[in-house]
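Q: I have two molecules that I believe assemble together. Could you output structure tokens for the complex as a whole instead of separate predictions?
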Amino acid sequence: MNHKTDKFKNHNPNVATILSIIFAGLGQLYNRRFLKGTIFIILEVAFLITLLDSINFGLWGLRTLGTIPGTDHSIRLLVFGVLSLIATIILLALYVWNVIDARNQAKKIKDGWMPKGFKDTIIHFYDTAFPYLMTVPGLLLMIFVVIFPLIFSVLLAFTNYNLYNSPPRNLVEWIGFDNFKELVTVPIWQETFISVLAWTIVWTVVATTLQIAIGLFLALIVNDPRIRFKKLIRTILILPWAVPAFVTILIFSAMFNDDFGTINRDIIIPLIGGEGIPWLSEPIYARTAIIMIQTWLGFPFIFALFTGVLQSISKDWYEAADVDGGSRFQKFRYITFPHVLFATAPLLIMQYAQNFNNFNIIYLFNEGGPPVRNSNAGGTDILISWVYKLTFETNNYAMAAVISLIMGLIISGFAFYQFRQTKSFKEEGEL
Amino acid sequence: MNQKQKSKIEVTLMYLVIVITSIIIFYPLVWTVGMSLNQGTSLYSSSIIPENFSLEHYKWLFSEESDYLLWYKNSLIVSISVAAGSVIITSLVAYAFSRYQFVGKKNALYVFLLLQMFPVMMAMVALYIFLNMIGMLDTLTGLILVYLGGQIPFNAWLVKGYFDTIPRELDEAAKIDGAGHLRVFWSIMLPLAKPILAVVALFNFMMPLFDFLLPSIVLSSQDNYTLAVGLFNFINDRFANNFTRFAAGSILIAVPVATVYLFLQRYLISGLTAGGTKG
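A: Yes, here they are, computed for all two components at once.
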């Protein structure tokens, strides 16, 4: 046993490291891991023969976005480019891993560790590779439909891609921060952006807070011990959540119609008189209507959520408060409210984030309208529906990407808060 | 006595609030049912209580003229594939994240948390161009793949959170008895995680069914429409003529969905809170 260990005393980790940097797999061969080394070498050769050219082409495309108008399709080049970039990162990670693997193994051999037999190696390989094998299908899918599109959109913000400058006729170019400058300096963009952003914030805060407040209020009422038929009442109150939202929004849109909607025809005109309220054609009324509809759609979920939490608050707390002579308001303020908020905070934050991105209600209600003068967004357009219009109606892709990017930054704020809130993540941090 | 009276007034007020809320909830729903039973296709001449009761719109939906059944079928294909696919993919990912230590695990979790915040909208242009390049634009397969990939970040967290609550001793014991990785996953984790997997399946069944944005961008031919896009196009020319048909079509989708929801709402809530506070 002893002389075997001696044999490898001169085994040098640095040699293994350098060899595997020169060509993947050589370090493994030096470590006498012949199968592993061969696989690595075959992989690298295969890569050099097949992929290197296309990755090179992709990165070239990403850098230049094409050089010959009419022949080079800038946007296709951009797609290839982003995909090549992702591939490059993955390959680099593999290469680094190969080097680290060779080095660690060389160290172990130097310290007297003996490579196991072929079968054991396979089993060991399966054990370490298992979590990767499990995640690969999902990860690949995610790369293509989530990560790649996001990177692509971010890059688009720095180009001049729009209806008038689009391939194959023209070449798209990198223009740096010009789009951002245009957004804040050109009056029509600047005004539209500020008004849309302001409305988005008002919309998010008012609509979400309203639906949370009403949900909480109703949950408290229905949870009162003196109220009977609780089960029936709960079922009724949850109904709006159960009906598909796109259906209800379209129905509301018809109900609020200026001319023949039932709200004007059957409620406003008989009760108040006059010509009815221009729900769809005046921005201020359209906004009010949209907030009311969202409240109708959104409170049941909050209601159901809070009902569950309220039932879990221990009765001892309230009894203790009774002993101390606490008023009902004090009980709500110091026991119920903190308890409910603490248990549901991350979900409530999610509600705000969801309304911030609530494309469905804005678009389906009135397609973001009514139109506003001196603005290229409608009266109820929030950022996301404006992006949709810029993309699919006026084909101003670059500007749409700029606004998406700004939205992304705002969303990251929500995400950051969520990071700190999530309990299991804190636990994960200790691992 | 005074105390009793006060309590009575309070209870009455509370019932009043509940009654008013119920009226607000039922009004649009009843109105839609009424519309769908009206004769003729115009909103102008329709009223909540139809003068001439008729089932003509329901009959029309099932007739040769309309694509309604086709859209229904498309929606079901998409929803069932996404529900089944997401359960498989997410549970595999969540298993790896819950039970194994591997390089990049923590960063991946960060990325997942960040990604679930971003709206699909931001990726729309890229998805459109990409699907076009690989020839999957205007196909249900393309739509399904986008849904499958997009749901991973959120649901992986949800399922991971649940897996974390299953005692590790169980799978360690099974491993000592000689069970392999997949065997532990299949015979221990999956059966124990049934409740959360049911929630994932349900979410991912409902989400494509209700979604309007993505199918309206990906699908362009009438034959491939899902229900949301199809119904929207019924009334796209601004309620001019087809609203009563739309109402009938909506009811035929809303009734089964609402029934399922009301039966399962308790599980939905518990699933969400599990994801929100634990995961």
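A: One point stands out. The CA atoms of residues 55 and 87 of chain A lie 8 Å apart.
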